Amino acid sequence: MKTKLSLLICVILITTTNYAQKVVALHSSTNGVQYFNENAAFQEAYDASVAGDTIYLPGGTHTPPNVFNKKLTIFGAGHHPDATIATFTTKISGNVILGENADGFHLEGVHITSELIIGNTNDISINDITIKRCRWTNLRVPGTQDMSTSNNNVFVENIFNSVYDCRNLRSSSFFNNIISNHAYYEIWDLYFVNNVFTHSDTYGTVTPTFNANNCVFQNNIFLQEGNNVVVGSDNTFENNIFCNTISALGTDPTEVNSYYMTRSEVLVNQTGNVFEYTDNYHLQAGAATNLGTDATETGIYGGVYPWKNYSIPTNPHISSKSISGSSDTNGNIQIDINVHAQTN
């Protein structure tokens, strides 16, 4: 914790005195701490890193390496505008692409402006990654479904548009995410718990929320108002809230203890398919009585990973800063930085 805090304070001090530069910190158990403050700071930190190292990205927009091809832990300052007033949001411009040597990769607290792609070519096995409290557009894990699949990957408390093409993803879990759209291609053997799916096709027959096979859906909220919630086969549904009028869950589903409500009865304040930071994903009183399989509430505020407001990453968080623009008669500069430790 002391090392993380010292790194954060150093980064914010250097960044404040070098407004045009983005100071990226690299912490290595073998090479110590290094700072990079050129225009290509993120790339330089990546080039200097070895497997197992940690990179800290400050607020601002960063250009990523073409492919992340080593096991790294990367922390940003967060993406919620209300929680990053002191630091600014951390954005990664373009796609984040993981290569075949990225097993164990951990990414947290960043806004990826385009897609998260696991596998720079089809049929690469990339396993044991964690993506937490991030935002991006589409998730892609491309492949042909029965070659070298990617397994045991975890997605926790993220905001993203769709599970766009995840045919090569297997035995992986999605906990407490806000997913604005649907799966465009078939998905297999995945586990969805305490998510909110905001996609809504009011016409009923145009687009299902998911094309899923042999997946498990527990304690989720499906805001889909049309009849086609899921197509595919052999999926299990337990303690989910549905906003459609009939059960339309594909071929041979197992359905246990489903709750059917109108969309206006479920969330405190959320409309449409597109995520807004002003939305409120807490349950209304009537919906809050519909409990999940673990006796906590359905949706993102229940389960093992209840949603953390403002999506603050787990590394120490700088909540405010005040640095005087000039020194006093003794040459001292007044600095006031408030940092909060995170327990989860």
Automatic annotation (TrEMBL):
Signal peptide positions on this chain: 1-20
Keywords for this protein: Signal
Claim: Transmembrane is one of the keywords in the record: no
Tree of life domain: Bacteria
Keyword Signal part of the UniProt annotation: yes
InterPro entries: Pectin_lyas_fold (IPR012334), Pectin_lyase_fold/virulence (IPR011050)
Gene3D superfamilies in UniProt: Single-stranded right-handed beta-helix, Pectin lyase-like
Protein's name in the database: Right handed beta helix domain-containing protein
